[in-house]
Write a structure and sequence with these properties.
alpha/beta; Rossmann fold; seven-stranded mixed beta sheet
Amino acid sequence: MRAPGGPPLAALHWPAPPGAPGVLVVPGLGSRKENHADFAERVAAAGMAAVAIDLRGHGESEGDLDGGVVDDVAAGLDALASLGHPRLGLRGSSMGGLLSLHAAARDDRVGAVVAICPARPEGLARRLEAEWPLALSPERDVARDDGVARGYWHATGDDRVPWGSTLALAGMTPQPMHLRVALGGGHNTLQHDPEVLGATVAFLAGHLGAP
């Protein structure tokens, strides 16, 4: 798979019958598809297909991380749709959460999105020493009254992305919306917490009409 004009993208696929919902798993900065197999396996157990991708410049995918990464997410959604999954969801962590919120606002096939500790554009720009994240506006993306179910999970102990930023996004989000702020933890702890894994899969399954 690849975005138009972009590098080849590596992915892992957990299949489901055609017609079932599909969920794209979008890792964060420095992460890769294998790190999210625990979540994808739960998606498959719930009767949905899952595809976890390596964004450009990550894992086994070629290229350098740049603004074209938003097209990598779109390519992942296209791949799921081509496999016969018309109802799509997204689950992203940190940078992946920011990108997932952006993609959900721009693709009518997306019915639900989960953002775990979603990154802030300005913080990501500082960390990467790059300007392209500043073109993203999560406030604009989540304020759309488009029927997309948006779920947010954040830990109060996150020292990389302040949990208050996610609280503010949730306050701008029309229903259907879900917010869970977990006490303690850190920037990466919720991604693999068994309770959060179960709750996020249930959120996606419920809003995507999984069997």
